[in-house]
Amino acid sequence: MKCFLVAISILICAGCGNTDLTVSTKTLPAATVGTAYSQTLTAVGGTTPYTWSITSGALPTGLTLSTPGVISGTPSTAGTSTFTVNVSDASNPVSSTTQSLTIQVISTALTTLAPGQSITLLTSGESIKVPSGTTIQSTNGSFITVNGDNNTINTSVGAVVSAPASATGPADNTVIAQ
Length: 178
What we know:
The protein is mainly beta. Helix content is 0%, strand content 46%. It has strands at residues 22-23, 31-32, 37-40, 43-44, 51-57, 63-65, 70-73, 79-88, 96-106, 111-112, 117-120, 127-132, 135-137, 143-145, 152-155, 160-163, 168-177. It starts with 21 loop residues before the first strand and ends with a strand. A hairpin with a 7-residue loop joins strand 8 (79-88) and strand 9. The protein has two domains: 22-106, Immunoglobulins (Immunoglobulin-like), CATH 2.60.40.10; 111-177, no CATH class.
């Protein structure tokens, strides 16, 4: 009779699975000059806790990024800020990844356009409330008609926004110059 010794190795991996670190925050909501803002950045994978920083660009004036990933503060200037965040995890060796993000800060002076009126958006971040049926002519000559309610439409600095007398409904659509 022949005997054989068979050895079986079992590898148990606690927490195994997707260990790739990725930033799950891809977009950020607009902020308003003079109004408190707070958004928490999120990531998946890797080993928590995460550490966040800005590697290029800058947040709008008045906002800061905390190490745990909270963008907060009160923006003081209208405009658009694009920046790159870096998230690092607690693994050894450390894993990290980056994501480009943008925050648009709109002006606090939110003018309302009534039917029969028009206005030219002059500066970046300037915004106006308009009713459905309003037309926007951008500086490249293209036209957009605002349809529906509670929409946000980005247009070029210097665009002409006109609400015809036939425009209907509440002025609850926001047009923002970029």
